[in-house]
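Hello,

Our lab assistant flagged a job as stuck in the queue for most of the afternoon. It eventually completed. Since we weren't sure the result was trustworthy after the delay, we are filing this so someone can double-check. Below is the sequence as submitted and the structure that was eventually returned. Let us know if re-running is recommended.
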Amino acid sequence: MTLVVDTGAPARIASVRITVTGPASVDSPLGTETIARITKRMERFPRARCSSRKPWTLAKERAINTLTGSPYAAARIARSEALIDPERASADLTIELASGPAFGFGQFEITGLYEIRTVGRAQLQHDRAGNAVQRCRAQPVRPAA
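-- returned structure --
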């Protein structure tokens, strides 16, 4: 017995849709600016051409990394879908990100031989184990004598 499979024409990307739910969707400017950056990047996702799973997976990873790199460190992918229409040989891609709550830190007080001045805004990110960690650029400054 021989089984023959007709894979059909490769699907072309017809549309890409991103939705963000949770507090980030209404938190201006932190949440809404982050969502705008994610949306702008997703708008550049190539359409009308054949695509494999890898570019879509990378685009989703960039989207969730952008959101978890903001105050929404607990963000997650709530839903991801690729609807394939075999008759049109097209794919409609959808991702929904759930922001979760915003995380923040209060005032830092550092004592010792040196002061630490933060440069830019501190960001909350995840380490390899999935734990939230704060990242910030800092530079030591010798105190005035």
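-- support follow-up --
The delay was a queue issue, not a problem with the job. The result is valid. The mean pLDDT is 81. Residues 53-68 form the longest helix (16 residues).
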